[in-house]
Structures are given as C-alpha cells and as structure tokens.
UniProtKB/TrEMBL annotation:
NCBIfam families: pyrH_bact. This is Uridylate kinase. ATP binds at K13, L14, S15, G16, G56, R60, T163, Q164, Y169, D172. It is found in: Cytoplasm. It holds the Pfam family AA_kinase. Homohexamer. It comes from Afifella marina DSM 2698. The keyword Ubl conjugation does not apply. Its main location: cytoplasm. The keyword Transferase applies. It comes from the Bacteria. Keywords: ATP-binding, Cytoplasm, Kinase, Nucleotide-binding, Pyrimidine biosynthesis, Transferase. Belongs to the UMP kinase family. Catalyzes the reversible phosphorylation of UMP to UDP.
Length: 249
C-alpha cells in the first residue's frame, strides 16, 4: 500500500451532483448536513479547509449548448448554480457552530463576499471554512479547474475531490462495470488515457505545480477524516513521487 500525504491545509472539491442525494435535481438537506458534519469534524481536528462547490445538481453549461443555446450564457447559469450550493453548505457548517464564509468568483455583494485571494487566505488563517462559488469565474471552465486553481492560490497541500464514485477507474465505472480502481495513478497517465473523472485543464494545472489530488467517495462516512490522517482512501493522483506534499521533498 502506498504512503499518503497528511495534508494540513486542504481544498475540498464537493460534487454538486452529490448534493442532490437520491433526488433527481437540487439540494437534499440531509445530504448537505451529513457533508457539513464530516467537514466540521476535520476542521475541529485542526485542518484548514477551503471548499469549491460544483453545480451539476442544478445546471451545467454544456446542457444549454447541447440544445443549441449559447454556451457562455449556459456557463454563467452554471456558475450561478454553484452560488446556491455554496450558500446551502455555508449555512449547514455554521449551524454546526463553525464559522464559514461563502465567496463568489462572480461579484454579488448583497449575497456573499467576492472571492479575493488574500481575503480568502486570511479567513482560513482565522480558522474559518471558506466555501468558494463560481468556479474560476470564466465560461468554458469547470469547478474542477476552479478547485485546482484555488488550491494553488491558497497554498493547499492537496486537492481532495469528493465525488460519487470510489476513486479513479480505468474507465467510467457508471458506464463500464469491468472498470478497475486505481490506488495511485500519475497525472501523465490520467491525461494520456483521457480518464474523465476531472477535466484535462485541472489535471494539467495540478501536474505543472505538483499538487497531489485524492479522488474519493464523498458518501463514505469518515472518508474525509481518514484521508487527512494519511490513510489510503480513494485514488492518489500525483507525479512519480507518490507521497509528495506540494513544495516539500
Ligand atoms: N475514469 C473514471 N473514473 C472514475 N469516474 C469517472 C471516470 N470517468 C468518468 N467518471 C465519472 O466522473 C464523475 C464525476 O462526477 P462529479 O459529480 O464529481 O463531477 P463534477 O462534474 O466535477 O461535479 P458536479 O456534479 O458538480 O458537476 C463520476 O461520477 C464518474 O461517473
Ligand atoms: O469556472 C467555471 C466553473 C463552472 N462553470 C459552469 O458551471 C457549471 C457547473 O460546474 P461543474 O464543474 O460542472 O459542477 C459548469 O458546467 C459550467 O457551465 C463555468 O462556466 N466556469
């Protein structure tokens, strides 16, 4: 079994799709509460956390483009969807007694703070959980790219992608029941094999800056805490030095 990083400051990418639970659309309050409980547990144990929220439970820009609509408009709608999710997660964390701040890459000052790198880093230093909405703030990107970008900006030790499946497989396990799960895989291999658990832009950014990514099943109770403790949960995507923490040999 490979050694794993023990990240102290993490960027958690939370799948929007995961927030809808068994519903066909939207936000399931019980699921949000369960995720918030896991997040608060690792926060209270000393981990510094930023969260990037997806929007797949509400809207994806490609859906409007597939119907012949304007992609940029669709992407703006998708980014706005992530703001709704961020507000729900922020509220759920605060209900558990931990201070949280939703920050959006798209300005909407009457709703939440605008993402400003130094301010987000300051909130983290002040032991607040920052909940980042709007992805990169630009169309034609995804919240996975936003997660890689923010993880680097906020000097996180690792990007943890909490998703619907157990990790990175040789093919999409929802489409191919024979797909096998990787315990570790290199950036180069996921890009070369076009493994679509994240987009290539996110993988490239992580590879170029030696940011380890751990893909895991967000529905598995206790998984987040076990990862932070250095346990081999899910799939570790990294360079050749499989247990490296960013910036440390
Ligand atoms: N090689 C692969 N290994 C694992 N999962 C894969 C792979 N290829 C495609 N997938 C699919 O990628 C999906 C990632 O889903 P997830 O909801 O986390 O994505 P997202 O688009 O980043 O988030 P959102 O739901 O917010 O849009 C998995 O549910 C899985 O079906
Ligand atoms: O930087 C970004 C991030 C997201 N979008 C749009 O939002 C939706 C939802 O994000 P997911 O990553 O799919 O959860 C995405 O489909 C894009 O339409 C964006 O334009 N730019």
């Amino acid at each position: 079994m490979s050694e794993r990083p023990r990240p102290k400051r993490i960027l958690l990418k939370l799948s929007g799709e995961a927030l809808m639970g068994n519903q066909p659309f939207g936000i399931d309050d019980n699921v949000v509460r369960a995720f918030a409980t896991e997040i608060v547990a690792v926060h209270n144990a000393g981990t510094e956390l930023a969260i990037v929220i997806g929007g797949g439970n509400i809207f994806r820009g490609v859906a409007i483009a597939a119907r012949g609509g304007d992609r940029v408009t669709g992407d703006h709608m998708g980014m706005l969807a992530t703001v709704m999710n961020a507000l729900a997660v922020e509220a759920a964390i605060e209900r558990l007694g931990v201070s949280a701040r939703a920050m959006s890459a798209i300005e909407m000052p009457s709703v939440c703070e605008t993402y400003v790198h130094r301010r987000a880093a300051w909130h983290m230093d002040e032991r607040r959980v920052v909940v980042l909405a709007g992805g990169t703030g630009n169309p034609f990107f995804t919240t996975d790219s936003g997660a890689a970008l923010r993880a680097l900006e906020l000097e996180c030790d690792a990007l943890l992608k909490g998703t619907q499946v157990d990790g990175v497989y040789s093919a999409d396990p929802r489409l191919d029941p024979t797909a096998t799960l990787y315990e570790t895989v290199s950036y180069q291999e996921v890009i070369a094999k076009d493994l679509q658990i994240m987009d290539t832009a996110a993988f490239s950014l992580a590879r170029d800056n030696s940011l380890p990514i751990i893909v895991f099943n967000i529905h598995q109770p206790g998984a987040l805490a076990r990862i932070v403790a250095g346990e081999a949960v899910g799939t570790l995507i990294s360079g050749d030095r499989k247990n490296e923490i960013r910036g440390k040999p």
